[in-house]
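Hello forum,

I keep getting stuck at the same step: I have a sequence, I want structure tokens, and every attempt I make locally crashes halfway through. Rather than fight my setup again tonight, could one of you with a working pipeline run this one for me? It's a single chain of 214 residues.
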Amino acid sequence: MGVAERFRTFLSNIALTETQVTNGSSRRKAVVRALNNFYRGISNDTANSIYVGSWAKHTHIRPPRDVDVLYTLPVDVYHRFQSRAGNKQSQLLQEVKTVLAATFGQTAIRGDGPIVNVPFTAYNVELIPAFVLNGGRHWVCMTDNGGHYKKADYAAEVSAISESNRSTNGNTRNLIRMMKCWQGYCSVPIKSFHIELLATDFLGRVDKRSIHSS
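Reply #2:
Ran it on my machine without issues. Output:
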């Protein structure tokens, strides 16, 4: 077996199975349905939500670590909490945690800005409650320093990975997946987001050198 074939086999072995993808989708739907019921009085299980993180960028690996989901709250929820005293963002996350606990009572749900972690048997949903801003960006809750909102542009993150992947003939996502496997196997203290930055920066430099040398 040649080197190229070994890498193809490696990538196949760390790709999510169809069952794991289905399980991730069903967990997202269960969480979103509970939030839509409470905040909007509807039973839709995907509306007002998007995948973020590795599920949006298609860089998730086996075994799955979590499912990253952003849920857009109604604007009236923002105004309701703005009228309160104290750490508004912490209070908002605790409300979301309470809403989910009413449905998933047997799970130890945690709320730490900007994430509400909803544990399931196989893997967790990391939910990010947010408010939509102009241009497709979002405000997410940060509970440190008395509480504040942080501007996030998840669409730009996805676009950066997609653009790099196109320009490298699919190598960007493959490199990120392999680096994530290395990070997990060796317990390297580096976040997935930083792995993505390193991979896109490295491949971007390689691509530029190839252009200049041609």
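The chain has eight helices and seven strands. If your local run keeps crashing, start a new thread with the error log.
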